[in-house]
Design a protein that fits this description.
Elements lengths: L3 H10 L18 H18 L5 E6 L2 H13 L5 E6 L2 H11 L3 E7 L20 E7 L19 E4 L14 E7 L10 E6 L16 H6 L9 H17 L1 H21 L5 E2 L11 E6 L5 H10 L14 E4 L6 H18 L1
Parallel strand pairs: 2-3, 2-4, 4-5, 5-6
Antiparallel strand pairs: 1-7, 6-7, 8-9, 9-10
Bound molecules: pyridoxal-5'-phosphate.
């Protein structure tokens, strides 16, 4: 979901970008006009996300999936291992792709407990020669989220695709934070990579240029043609975020939105059920079941008929999922909560 105000602004200037007689997507990416959008996007990310000077902000095409491989390619040098926390579908994909490019191992897996929670730091097994611990900050499909970051003696790297810009980051504990932008920030086609500058000397340089973090960072993400459209939209979304009060406002709104839906679930007397333990519940993707699974198709269809499409859980897990990303207005959540209460009353 993107803020309506941003979509309208994009629409208004799409055909003729600020008097250029052409669209932003037709202008050269080396033009001064695009250059100022590009720089402003980087500056706003730094300002709003509190990205320290020692990190580079890099824009790369190919989404978060490409980062699964690129991360291992760049960082797993000299016999070092990558540790992965297996919290669900996305963590498993990161691990599988990482394993194609280096030695990786599972530091903890939630598979046997149905991915009902994230681990405590004490449950993680970190071997010698571990380069990083990879965490999936928020499992978009399973609805578990690290509300507390693991405390381990190795640098963290995080896939934040589905909770980017919804919570602050303790940067001193991270070497890399990455994510696709299409949940909270922009249309698909772009991954953000925040990479600690001091590690770039030690990343692999014997890779095709596009796969090298140091190349993207040294060229200010202009090594090749950047994905202009998502960067352009993201810059507007970041301005919108700043107008709303920045990261603290996004975090508070996420707390309120998700809290209200979890409250309906927890106070439903077992009619709605959350498969996730309270301390690991996602503030972006509220995953739930109706205890009587046979009611779920009716719930999803009626919700759609009432202007709330997209409540079907991911096809791999079934059930229901309310994705409440940054641009979701409070009114949308209030409408969902009212609908959930009504549906339960009518079913009883
Ligand atoms: C947590 C997480 N990681 C990775 C991905 C993959 O992202 P992309 O489609 O940009 O490759 C997704 C996509 O939804 C995701 O939710």
């Amino acid at each position: 979901m993107l803020p309506l105000a941003v979509l309208e602004e994009v629409q208004a200037e799409f055909v003729d970008y600020r008097g250029h007689g052409m669209s932003i997507v037709e202008l050269s990416h080396r033009s001064a006009s695009y250059g100022s959008v590009h720089r402003s996007a980087v500056d706003l990310l730094r300002e709003l996300f509190g990205v320290p000077e020692g990190f580079d902000v890099v824009f790369i095409q190919g989404g978060a999936t490409m980062q699964f491989g690129m991360l291992a390619m760049n960082l797993l040098t000299g016999g070092l291992n990558g540790a992965y926390v297996d919290t669900g579908a996305w963590a498993s994909k990161a691990l599988d792709d990482g394993s194609q490019h280096g030695d990786v191992y599972v530091a903890w897996s939630g598979r046997d407990i149905g991915y009902a929670r994230v681990p405590d730091s004490g449950e993680l097994t970190i071997r010698e020669n571990t380069r990083y611990l990879h965490v999936t900050s928020n499992e978009t499909i399973g609805g578990v989220q690290f509300r507390k970051w693991p405390d381990v003696p190795v640098p963290l790297v995080a896939d934040m695709s589905s909770d980017l810009m919804s919570r602050p980051i303790p940067w001193h504990r991270f070497d890399v934070v990455y994510g696709g932008v299409q949940k909270n920030l922009a249309p698909a086609g772009l991954a953000l990579v925040f990479v600690r500058r001091s590690i770039l000397e030690h990343t692999r340089h014997d890779l095709a240029s596009y796969f090298r973090y140091d190349v993207h960072a040294s060229k200010d993400s202009m090594h090749n043609t950047p994905p202009v459209f998502p960067i352009y939209v993201m810059e507007k979304v970041l301005r919108w975020m700043r107008d709303q009060g920045g990261l603290p406002a996004m975090e508070e709104a996420a707390d309120i939105r998700s809290g209200l839906i979890y409250q309906i679930i927890d106070e439903s007397g077992g009619f709605y059920v959350s498969p996730v333990e309270p301390a690991s519940r996602s503030k972006m993707n509220v995953v739930f079941r109706i205890a009587d699974h046979a009611l779920e198709p009716h719930f999803i269809a009626e919700a759609a008929a009432n202007g709330m499409p997209g409540l079907k859980g991911h096809r791999s897990v079934g059930g229901c999922r309310a994705s409440v990303y940054n641009a979701m207005p409070q009114a949308g959540v209030d409408a969902l909560c009212e609908f959930m209460a009504d549906f339960q009353r009518n079913a009883g």
